[in-house]
Amino acid sequence: MPRSAPNNHRDSQAKLQRILRQAARVFSEKGFEGASIRDISRASGVSLSGLYYYFESKQKLLYLIQIHAFTSILQRLERRLAGLLDPEERLRTLVANHIEYFLRHPMEMKVLAHEDLALEDPYRREVAEIKRRYYQLARSIFDELRAGGRVRRMNPRVAVLSLFGMMNWIYTWHHPRVDPPADRLAEIVADIFLEGVGNGQAARRARPLPIGRGLPQHRARASA
Amino acid sequence: MPRSAPNNHRDSQAKLQRILRQAARVFSEKGFEGASIRDISRASGVSLSGLYYYFESKQKLLYLIQIHAFTSILQRLERRLAGLLDPEERLRTLVANHIEYFLRHPMEMKVLAHEDLALEDPYRREVAEIKRRYYQLARSIFDELRAGGRVRRMNPRVAVLSLFGMMNWIYTWHHPRVDPPADRLAEIVADIFLEGVGNGQAARRARPLPIGRGLPQHRARASA
DNA sequence: CTATTTTTCGAACGAACGTTCGACTAGATT
DNA sequence: AATCTAGTCGAACGTTCGTTCGAAAAATAG
């Protein structure tokens, strides 16, 4: 009955990825509880029972989507951070990576940001652990920034979580036709944060060179 | 069968409020779709069918919770803003009002922030309209701030929505035993925002008098 | 006390849910 | 050619869902 021939392990994995993508879309549109496996069957073109060849439960399906998205964003971030030493550049890279990934994979990220309540305890803990690692990475960059004297006295936990708030809320309002693209958005958010937690001297600047910051030069490009 | 006597219209309204409170709790814990009317029946002590005397559908129940919360926060804000003219103070008041209400009614606000996808089109539009009014109020305060020359050139929509991001994300991480109380939290968030969007001069200061800003005086009280 | 209105609930409805099962197909292996 | 394995699906399972209905109790009015 399968019209195209799934000959090997490769094709099977690819089909699973296709299912995960469609499932993420359905979850992002109707919510985890509001979406039915039948919805996902319809969206993916795989029969209801056929889906269970690829995942053993609805919970596991959500888990697979979340783990995949989180792992990707973290791997990508660690790769981009590898060569960077300057704390401000590291933080700007984290923000850019986060927002770019968000806008490039809006459905997966919406599921990630919106559906952590729905996962139950075997899976819940594992996703929470990765989330914690991500927060700790951001926190350590913030602490480097602070050690460099570029942050004023303030509660670091609240500061970092406020940054995540700005970034994670974007999915609720961003419209590609109206709002700036990812790189510009990342710049604005990073500017607000760095100025916002800064000690008043320096901070907001356009992309400087890998080391040292550029001289003051006004950034144009506003929009009313 | 009711043991206490609901004598008049007052008591009936009070019981509805009790049901709304319990329903908000259940929705905040299990999500709108994940929660069943039977859960709400159990939590509120009213029989399954008895609930339908107070609201006509699950959708309407969610609508009532959201409208009530939104109306309250907006009314309270407009009252507090009445006497204030200084844009910075007006913005600080908005932030304080928002965060205080959030932390005082965490369940209702979680439902408000988390479940706008679930509402369908007769109700959805009405809630969206109030949300829009709230955003516009914040936006107009930001524009006043800008007109006063205290904001640098930047995309105002992105700025204001980033502020909402910081505020609306709090419900995902705030733990009363670990994190600062509402007033302190509001101060931090307002500081980050005002410094973050500011033009470099002035901004972050402890509550000044209703008009004019106080002289520089260091704000102590940090926490590692 | 009687009549009326407001409030409550047990029982049941059909629909939709997540999941399972056994049969079937088609390519790979021997 | 016979066997095996990976992949697919229709049909059905038992459960839970939101909602309805009619009766009965409690409060109010005359």
Structure description:
The structure is a homodimer of 224-residue chains. The first copy, chain A, has 9 helices and no strands. Chain A has helices at 9-30, 37-44, 48-51, 58-81, 87-104, 106-114, 121-147, 156-169, 182-197. Chain A is elongated, with a radius of gyration of 20 Å. The N and C termini of chain A lie far apart (57 Å). Mean pLDDT of chain A is 88; it is low at 1-6 and 207-224. At the A-B interface, helix 8 and helix 9 of A face helix 8 and helix 9 of B.
Which sheet architecture does the biggest sheet of chain A show?
none
Structural class of chain A: mainly alpha
Shape, principal axes of CA atoms of chain A:
elongated
Q: What is the mean predicted local confidence, pLDDT of chain A?
A: 88
**Which consecutive residue ranges of chain A, at least 5 long each, have pLDDT under 50?**
1-6, 207-224
N-to-C span of chain A: 57 Å
Strand content of chain A: under 5%
Which key terms come to mind for this protein?
homodimer, 224 residues, mainly alpha, 9 helices, 63% helix, DNA-binding
